[in-house]
Amino acid sequence: MTEGSRRFLVTTAPGLQELLAEELRSFGVDPTVEPSGAVTFTGDWVEASRVLVRTRIGSRLLLSLRSFSARTKAMLYDQVRRIDWPAVFPSTLTMAVEATGSLAGTDYVLSYAPLRIKDAVCDEFRKRGFLRPDVDRWEPDVSLRAFFHRGRCELSVDLSGRPLHRRGYRQDGAEAPLRENRAAALLLFCGYDGSRPLLDPFCGSGTIPIEAALIATRTAPGLLRDPEAFAMPRLFPDAGDALGEERRRARAERREAPPHPIAGSDLSGETLETARGNAEKAGVGDWVRFEERDARGIEAPDSWIVTNPPYGERLEDPVLAADLIRAFVHGVKHSCAGSRLGLVVPRGALEKAVGLRAEKRLAVESGPLRLRYLCYEIRAGRFTSAGQKEGGGS
User: Fold this and answer.
1) What is the pTM of this model?
2) Is 205 in the same domain as 145?
3) For the segment 51-75, what is each residue's pLDDT rounded down to a tens digit?
4) Does 350 share its domain with 209?
5) Which pLDDT belongs to residue 4?
6) Angle of helix 240-252 versus helix 45-54 axis, rounded to 10
7) Which residue range(s) make up the domain with 335?
């Protein structure tokens, strides 16, 4: 690969690809959302550094090493052997291989692919007179990612280190049903930019208010990480200068404080203490207010109200979850005129329990959960029992 011709892939949760592509364009990267669902771009270390430092929605940045036909076990092994592995990483580093995608039309299953790829990499090192790299499935120095689609494999090396959604501010063991990048995606989906107050009335461990504070202060998520946490400069030392310069530029663009208040509330005092600790670790503790309050008594006009309300798996009772959402939305309709409401709920009955007509809807996958991001404009006026505003709806 020559300078300026590298192919990169940015991963995120299924359903967030178009939102991720829009974000990448906002800081000068020209992405493509491919039919397979992959978000890709061609560029150099400068553009790669922008993604590592600035993306709020991406999970990992990968450097593509080779794309090839892999319909049989023999083809997969042979094509992986053709990569110049000593030029990618020294054999003294540990490695791991992860495979995703669909292997329809091949003669092997997904669980077999990492083993075959690992054997091919190790055999190529040995053929060239190097030791076989050791495998470390939990904390490898080098993480290889194989994506399969329509009989082809694209093999990449992870430049992120630990996943980019792990900003580093969450306390170990604290309950956090919404990952950082999914929370940021919900905020951006609703148009949040810090130009009005924000409230999360079911804030839990504080992820949504913390991500809102990072957005409002223009704090790039990559600034929360130690530079050594990124794998890119370790694997490709010539990329280190670009990453350092991007971090300097991002620091210079930060605001001293959010222009409007940011708050979170919850019924659990213990959870709120966790939220306050997370906010301090994220460097936004002075800007986010957390208080113990029942979401059903909400009063937040002319604001953003963005939240992940408790549902089935968290309340362990879908009926109670639906009743809580109805009562909460009733309060929003009657006490929050002029606000924009953003919700994430499982698709189906709880989505219907909201009882409002969504301005925007987005299907998102989160492990086994099939979620829906919903955005509503709350306008002043009387509402029917069905939840629609008289004379046109909200």
Assistant:
1) 0.91
2) no
3) 999 999 999 999 999 999 999 999 9
4) yes
5) 57
6) 50
7) 180-218+253-377
